[in-house]
Amino acid sequence: MKLSQRGGFVMGLVVGLLVGLAIALAVALYITKAPVPFVDKVPQRTAEQDKAEAERNRTWDPNAPLGGKPVARPASAASGAVAAASAAAAGPVTEPPRPAPGRDPAAILAGGAVPPASAPARAVADAFVFFVQAGAFTRQEDAEQQRAKLALMGQQAKISERDQAGRTVYRVRLGPFSTREEADGLQVRLQEQSVEAQIVRVEKP
């Protein structure tokens, strides 16, 4: 009885293996014949394409891309070079004469007289006179002493009164002078003799 059971088990095992092999073979045949997704969509390469690619790889130069293409010059630079060449061929270019500083081109064309450049400054200077003030005192006696001191130096000064901050001030002045240069010269001479002096500009009445 045991032998028959063992023989049946072995037979069933063999039959199961054969059935499994048959099923596996059928599945393999089906897979090889059925199209596989994402695989059949890739185009198949031919032998000629493989040969051409091998030839390109053999003659490939890694430094070829570094050469690049010749860079085209900008139009502005080219036009500038052409303009410079034409200017050199034509000879030196002479600029039109410019009017002198301070001269009015309209006045020159009209044939009128051209005023000098310092006319405005001279007009301002003519509107003032200049004094050299050798001191301002609150006592008239002190102002008289300063005037006497200047007289000993050969300078004729005058005393003028003016109210300042509610008090009378006595000013000792020399002048008037029509130009600032004259007043400056006297101021320097007085300072050389230890007399403090300053320039005062007064508008003409």
Given as residue ranges, the uncertain stretches (5+ residues, pLDDT < 50) are 63-71
The average pLDDT is: 74
Number of H/I helices: 8
Task: Please name the CATH architecture of the domain at 121-203.
Answer: 2-Layer Sandwich
Alpha-beta content class:
alpha+beta
Per CATH, the superfamily of the domain at 121-203 is Sporulation related repeat
Beta-strand residue fraction: 15-25%
CATH class category of the domain at 121-203: Alpha Beta
Distance between the termini: 161 Å
Radius of gyration (CA) equals 59 Å
Largest sheet: 4 strands, antiparallel
Biggest sheet strand line-up:
2-3-1-4
Properties at a glance:
4-stranded antiparallel sheet, 205 residues, 8 helices, rod-shaped, Alpha-Beta Plaits, alpha+beta
Short description:
The protein has 205 residues and is an alpha+beta fold. It is 51% helix and 17% strand. It has a domain of 83 residues: 2-Layer Sandwich (Alpha-Beta Plaits).
How do the strands and helices of this protein lay out in sequence?
Layout (H helix, E strand, L loop, with lengths): L1 H32 L13 H12 L5 H4 L7 H16 L14 H6 L8 H8 L1 E10 L2 H13 L5 E7 L2 E11 L2 H13 L5 E6 L2
Antiparallel strand pairs: 1-3, 1-4, 2-3
